[in-house]
Amino acid sequence: MAGRMVEFSTNGIKTSAYLATPPAGKGPGVIVIQEWWGLVGHIKNVCDRFAGEGFTALAPDMYHGKTANEPDGAQKLFMALNIAQAEKDLRGAAQYLAEYSATQKLGAVGFCMGGQLALFAATLNPRVGACVNFYGIHPNVKPDYSKLSGPVLGLFAENDAFVTPQVARDTEAAITKAGRQSEIHIYPGANHAFFNDERPDAYNKPAAEDAWKRTLAFFRRHLK
């Protein structure tokens, strides 16, 4: 992996994060937020891919050192997420990344649990000027869409049992009702976690490749 682990402080608590930088050294900052598994290799690889495309990517460790490799363990970590601490971690990540990347506007992107947290991050800090939500879900995270400082791109799956197409459309409608900009794309035949190439049971190569292209274009358009 091309990146390295770093630490930032929020209210006296240190949070670890994976930082990947582009060959040029600096680029537009993107906060990358984990799935319910934790800060695992797949998320670090996503950061490296962003760095390869010219972005500075930071993935905060939302579980503070804990990870899971099977669904029951992931579910327990997911439900035990301390939302107040998560808010501090997301604010701290935005501040660290803004200072490190020296860019005015940041992006936030997340997957599954991280998709909902990316929306949350985009409502917490006006520095976040664009958000990409990959099939985001967390029952205890309630973003105030009226506080979004930039547009949202939602990427969802037709056969998602957790975040159904109707949930996706409802999310888009709620963002629009709050007076903010949202667009969604629902991939036919795809399942939840279709972007995770380390999960052969869920990975959908055509959908993942298209979603990656849309994500890069979205951030390049809004994080100039």
In words, what does this structure look like?
- The chain has one domain: Rossmann fold (3-Layer(aba) Sandwich), CATH 3.40.50.
- 37% of the residues lie in helices and 22% in strands.
- It has an eight-stranded mixed β-sheet with strand order 1-2-4-3-5-6-7-8, sandwiched between helices.
- β1 and β2 (13-20) form a beta hairpin.
- It is of the alpha/beta class.
In brief, what are we looking at here?
The chain is an alpha/beta fold and 224 residues long. The chain has helices at 41-52, 71-79, 83-101, 113-124, 165-177, 205-222, and strands spanning 4-10, 13-20, 29-33, 56-60, 106-111, 128-134, 152-157, 182-187. The protein has a single domain (4-222), classed as Alpha/Beta hydrolase fold, catalytic domain (Rossmann fold, 3-Layer(aba) Sandwich).
